[in-house]
Design goal:
Length: 184
């Protein structure tokens, strides 16, 4: 039977480490790590390297943010760790060099629909194949509202996606200063 665990919290709050611990409990060495990060600058390269060094070397790795459901169906791994949803959302938003200041509400809705479809397809594939899924996401609703339209769009989409994921998850954890709090 499939289990879905959502790990949320602020940046650098210990989410990824907690997710790795949960994935280990669920799958041991039988884990596929879905890494959505793209090394766009030196800081991101360093973050990715730190995640790679900490990760169980026996786990499989998939790097990308498109067609995740296909990867879930094809992989032999029975536990999937996706790190992270907010980076996936950012990647979708930044592809094709969009102008968020001039974007219409219909164009924003189209981007959001693409992201939601990607995540819904992933969830469906996990459930149909009776695999476990541990998902990392940032809680962006506890911070200051962005002065920039792109930031507000990102927060709105992330909030909706996080609510959707929390509603279907078996367990939800909030990581604060490295301390996990089970909220569902």
């Amino acid at each position: 039977m499939s289990r879905i665990i959502l790990i949320t919290g602020g940046s650098r709050s210990g989410k990824s480490l907690l997710a790795e611990q949960k994935a280990t409990v669920l799958g041991g060495d039988d884990v596929l790590y879905m890494a959505t990060g793209i090394a766009t600058d030196e800081d991101m390269k360093e973050r990715i390297l730190l995640h790679q060094l900490r990760r169980n070397p026996n786990w499989g790795t998939f790097e990308g943010y498109h067609d995740l459901a296909d990867e879930v169906r094809e992989t032999p791994y029975m536990t999937i760790l996706l790190d992270c949803i907010t980076v996936l959302i950012t990647n979708y938003m930044l592809q094709d060099n969009k102008d968020f200041e001039e974007m219409t509400k219909a164009e924003i809705a189209y981007i959001e629909e693409d992201i939601v479809k990607e995540i819904e397809s992933l969830i469906k594939a996990v459930q149909e194949s009776e695999k476990n899924l541990v998902v990392v996401t940032n809680e962006v609703g506890m911070s200051v509202v962005s002065a920039y339209r792109m930031g507000r769009i990102f927060s709105d989409i992330t909030g909706k996606v996080n609510q959707m994921l929390a509603s279907i998850s078996d367990e939800v954890y909030l990581s604060v200063s490295g301390i996990p709090l089970q909220i569902k």
